[in-house]
Design a protein that fits this description.
four-stranded antiparallel β-sheet; alpha+beta; XS_domain; FDM1-5/IDN2_XH; Putative XS domain-containing protein; XS_domain_sf; 15 helices
Length: 568
């Protein structure tokens, strides 16, 4: 459909162009003939038929015949002109410039502006130059159309009216010409002259007669009209074929549209059914989903209740295990104390027995010397010997018991050490020991607190003039303290470093000195070979090593506090 419309539009435009082309060509062909006739005062009347049915070809033929008759009246038929139409200007005033040693005159722009002001319409003006400078000649081009020919003829008639035509130029001597400007249309004799003007005419144009140019235009017009007529005929045939195809396509389209309407109606019915089924299915799915959601929510609540119950039981089990563990440790500790007490009593008994044995041995030796002659003394000696033997056997039993107790004490001590290590690992090293009584301390590690105080004081004195903020002072002091403490910590860990230097008092204060000295003493006491800090249970309030009982009591206290904070 769209293609058919385009073809119709092109067809109409082609017909309009053919009709208008004849009018335009007729107008162009009339121009030079009428103009020339007016210049020569020829009265020529153009008979035209104003009938509506007059064809374009008859009108054009009539006008061309009239124009040809006018040109014959001025003898232009066989006269050769330079085409594109040109006018030669001569005797242009030029002045010699001593500096450049060349001649200069009006340039092509000035000449063109003067001609335009006089009512002419030149297309281009050329002012030739040679080795001496600008020549006194100029060539004015008026184009290839009949309007240009009319302008060129008018310019030539203007020069002839002022007696500045070609004949006037050739009939005068150079001195007689003066400053007058001469001009005429370029013809065959100008074209064939072997000078700078003739060379330019040969390069830019050809020789043509007016009748030859008219015949050439007629041939082109006829050829164009013939081509347009053929094109119009071909387009008309294509239009008829396209119209036929359009009718066929229109019928097919009508059938297709009817089928489409039927299919669309069927499709809408099916869509309505599908939507109804979909709504019913969605309603069913929604109900099932709501039912499943309620069941899932009930199951979730049940699981959450079980989870809370399980967490409570786990917490109770953990608390019970912790309680049993502490009770077991307490019983083991009491048993250990009892064993230590028994061991101490056994040791006292052993020492008393050893003393008694020594006394009996001394008495036995004395009685042995005395009782060699006295039978009674011999009996006493035998009794002492038997008692001494019993005491020695008793001493052996006591030593065996003591050895057993020592082994048991060592085993129990190992268990206590393991319990102490376990307690240390549970409590861990706190970041802040300011409010802690019982905790873990790394023995042999330099305390950073004195360094922080000294660094803040030193940085504050240095940055006082700059009016630094508290935050900047705190950050700078912290960095300085860490750097300072790290340096002394490396010195303490170095086995080859032993002396205490006064520089600590100068750089910091007595607290810094005490911190370094304490770290070195603790490292020598707890880990002299490894030279690295070791964790130890510590009573920060009293500044001493904490007992296992204190650690267990502290852990029980923490456990009770955390137990009270738990919520289920």
């Amino acid at each position: 459909m769209r293609r058919l419309k385009i073809l119709l539009i092109k067809h109409s435009a082609l017909e309009m162009y053919i009709e208008s082309y004849g009018d335009v060509k007729v107008g162009k062909d009339k121009s030079p003939a009428v103009s020339i006739a007016n210049d020569k005062s020829h009265d020529v009347s153009i008979a035209s038929d104003k009938s509506v049915n007059l064809s374009i070809a008859n009108e054009k033929s009539l006008v061309m015949n009239v124009a040809k008759g006018q040109l014959d009246s001025v003898n232009f038929d066989d006269e050769l002109f330079v085409w594109p139409w040109m006018v030669i200007l001569k005797n242009i005033v030029t002045d010699f410039n001593p500096k450049s040693r060349k001649y200069y005159g009006k340039n092509h722009k000035q000449i063109k502006e003067e001609l335009i002001m006089k009512g002419f319409h030149p297309m281009k003006v050329t002012a030739p130059w040679n080795h001496q400078g600008q020549t006194p000649f100029a060539i004015v081009e008026f184009g290839r159309e009949w309007d240009g020919f009319h302008n060129a003829m008018m310019l030539e008639r203007g020069f002839q009216a002022e007696h500045c035509g070609k004949r006037d130029y050739l009939g005068l001597w150079e001195q007689e010409r003066g400053d007058r400007l001469f001009g005429w249309m370029a013809r065959r004799d100008d074209y064939n002259v072997k000078d700078i003007v003739g060379k330019h005419l040969q390069e830019k144009g050809d020789l043509k007669t007016v009748s030859g140019k008219e015949a050439e235009d007629n041939r082109k017009a006829k050829k164009l009209v013939s081509g347009l007529e053929n094109t119009l005929k071909r387009k008309t045939e294509e239009l008829e074929q396209t119209a036929s195809k359009y009718d066929e396509a229109n019928v097919s389209l009508r059938k297709a549209m009817e089928q489409k309407e039927m299919m669309l109606e069927h499709f809408n019915k099916e869509i309505s059914k599908m939507r109804q089924v979909e709504c019913e299915y969605q309603e069913k799915v929604s109900k099932d989903h709501e039912k499943s959601r309620l069941e899932l929510e009930a199951r979730r609540n049940e699981l959450m209740s079980r989870e809370k119950d399980l967490q409570k039981r786990q917490a109770d089990n953990h608390n019970e295990r912790t309680k049993l563990y502490f009770e077991k440790k307490h019983k083991e500790k009491e048993k250990l104390h009892k064993k230590i007490h028994d061991l101490e009593r056994g040791l006292d008994a052993k020492q008393a027995l050893e003393l008694e044995i020594e006394q009996l041995k001394g008495a036995f030796q004395v009685m042995n010397h005395i009782g060699e002659t006295d039978p009674d003394e011999k009996k006493k000696l035998e009794a002492i010997r038997m008692e001494l033997q019993e005491k020695e056997e008793e001493l052996e039993n006591v030593e065996d018991l003591q050895q057993t107790l020592v082994v048991q004490e060592r085993k129990t001590n190992d268990e206590l050490q393991d319990a102490r290590k376990k307690l240390i690992s549970w409590i861990g090293c706190p970041k802040n020991t300011a409010q802690v009584i019982i905790s873990v301390k790394r023995m042999g590690e330099v305390d950073i607190k004195p360094f922080l105080e000294a660094a803040k004081r030193k940085i504050s004195d240095e940055m006082n003039e700059k009016a630094a903020t508290k935050r900047k002072l705190s950050e700078a002091g912290k960095m300085k303290a860490i750097e300072w403490c790290s340096k002394w910590d490396d010195c303490v860990k170095d086995p080859s470093w032993h002396p205490f230097k006064v520089v600590t008092d100068k750089e910091g204060n007595s607290k810094v000195h005490d911190a370094v000295a304490t770290a070195l003493k603790e490292l020598n006491e707890y880990n002299p070979s490894g030279r690295y800090p070791v964790p130890e249970l510590w009573n920060f309030k009293e500044g001493r090593k904490a007992s296992l009982k204190e650690g267990v009591s502290h852990l029980v206290k923490i456990w009770k506090s955390n137990k009270g904070k738990k919520t289920y």
